[in-house]
Design a protein that fits this description.
There is one protein chain. The protein is an alpha/beta fold. The chain is 42% helix and 11% strand. It has 14 helices and nine strands. The protein has helices at residues 2-9, 20-32, 39-51, 63-73, 90-98, 118-123, 144-154, 201-211, 219-223, 243-277, 306-315, 331-334, 343-351, 363-378, and strands at residues 58-60, 81-85, 102-106, 129-135, 157-161, 177-181, 194-198, 296-299, 352-355. Strand 4 (129-135), helix 7 (144-154) and strand 5 form a beta-alpha-beta unit. The longest helix is centred in the C-terminal third of the chain and has 35 residues, at 243-277. It is globular. It binds pyridoxal-5'-phosphate. Pyridoxal-5'-phosphate (PLP) binds at residues 62-64, 88-89, 91-92, 135, 161, 163-164, 181, 183, 194.
Length: 379
């Protein structure tokens, strides 16, 4: 009980915004008595595609499954290497292993620009490199033209792990495929869920087929008498989204624009106040233009005791977290990527602290967080 009370009064790093609209949408699904792969999933796919400048999209049960499907539909498999950042959530690299390929970890550009480095990616290309997977850390969409040029000149597939960049105002996706997450802590949520966009309609249709056991027809088509049976010409998976998730997704998608504007305003307030209140703390992405402001990472001074800062902030009711423990240092991967050293990633990850950022926050809370951080650092 005490723990729950403590949590409810904490200012959290991220928090979903759910309410009466989502409840009503769920009631509609139950009343309609059709609970998976129906009209709401289709409507959600269309609305999401339209908002992200794409012709179509495929809804899946989570982003990790979507990344696996994207690699699978693009033909990435055993014997192939895929360039991935290490400063990411472990799912980025895991999806490569699900596809039977090998993740090759690439360093970030710099402490101020902690996204995958083009130069280090070029250095890690081998004749086995088949694809490159960029990740829009914190929601910042960087170097679209340069990554396309990088992939095209080497004949590589380009995949965007866009889990952080849902609703980033940036026009079309630049990857051959882009995959989004609707997990509970992302910019919009369906509880669990994800979406795949692909440039080539044939790739998207392979994603669609592989999502549902590789079957050539859907339940709706068979029920409506359009077809009577199905074939399975490929190995497929069950990575489907259900109607309840899609119903929540449709409601959330309509609010995404205003939530992302609020995130941008809060991030702007952090940037305006940080120099004044915490001059020794650095805020990366100084010149970033396109972002969904998914999280608010800062870099503590080299001399700071990060865990002590975390504890002090918790005492003041401010939750913080780390994004991320580098994937190449997690024991499963450490044992499989002998001696990989990524100096910028390692320094960034050791000094990084993620501060609260979500649309339910008030502007005055930014000053409170930074004031508390200044105090914690003074100890
Ligand atoms: C959240 C996240 C994922 C996984 O998303 P799920 O929908 O939970 O599978 C993958 N990559 C990154 C960078 C993420 O932040």
């Amino acid at each position: 009980m005490d723990q729950i009370a403590a949590r409810s009064s904490m200012l959290l790093v991220s928090e979903p915004s759910l309410g009466e609209d989502e409840k009503a949408a769920l009631v509609d699904v139950i009343d309609g008595n059709w609970i998976t792969m129906g009209g709401r999933v289709q409507a959600f796919e269309q609305a999401f595609a339209q908002q992200h400048g794409a012709a179509g999209a495929v809804a899946v049960n989570n982003c990790t499954a979507g990344l696996h499907l994207a690699l699978y539909a693009l033909g990435v498999g055993p014997g192939d290497e895929v360039l991935v950042p290490s400063l990411t959530f472990v799912a980025t690299a895991n999806s490569v292993i699900y596809a039977g390929a090998k993740p090759v970890f690439v360093d970030v550009e710099s402490l101020d620009m902690p996204v995958m480095s083009l130069a280090d990616a070029a250095a890690k290309c081998t004749p086995r490199t088949k694809a490159v997977m960029v990740m829009h850390y914190a929601g910042h969409v960087r170097n679209p033209g340069a990554w396309r040029e990088f992939a095209e000149s080497r004949g590589l597939h380009l995949i965007e792990d866009s889990a952080h960049a849902v609703g980033a105002a940036r026009g079309e996706v630049f990857g051959d495929a882009a995959v989004f997450s609707f997990f509970g802590n992302k910019n919009m949520t369906t509880a669990e869920g994800g979406m795949v966009i692909a440039r080539d309609p044939e790739v998207l249709s392979r994603v669609r087929q592989a999502r549902s056991h590789g079957m050539t027809s859907t339940t709706v088509q068979r029920l409506s008498g359009q077809v009577v049976t199905y074939d399975v010409p490929m190995l497929g998976f069950n990575y489907r989204m259900d109607e309840m998730c899609a119903a929540i997704g449709l409601v959330q998608l309509a609010k995404l624009g205003s939530w992302n504007s609020k995130r941008k305003a809060l991030a702007g307030e952090y940037r305006a106040l940080i120099r004044q209140l915490c001059p020794r703390v650095e805020m990366p992405f100084a010149d970033s233009l396109v972002s969904s402001h998914h999280i608010l990472p800062v870099l503590l001074p080299r001399s700071a005791d990060r865990q002590a800062v975390v504890n002090k902030l918790r005492e003041r009711g401010v939750q913080t977290s780390f994004h991320y423990p580098p994937v190449h240092r997690l024991s499963y991967y450490r044992d499989r990527s002998f001696g990989t050293r990524l100096p910028h990633t390692e320094e960034f990850a050791a000094r990084e602290l993620t501060l609260p950022l979500h649309p339910k926050m008030e502007m005055w809370q930014v000053e409170f967080v930074l004031g508390s951080l200044a105090e914690a650092l003074a100890h």
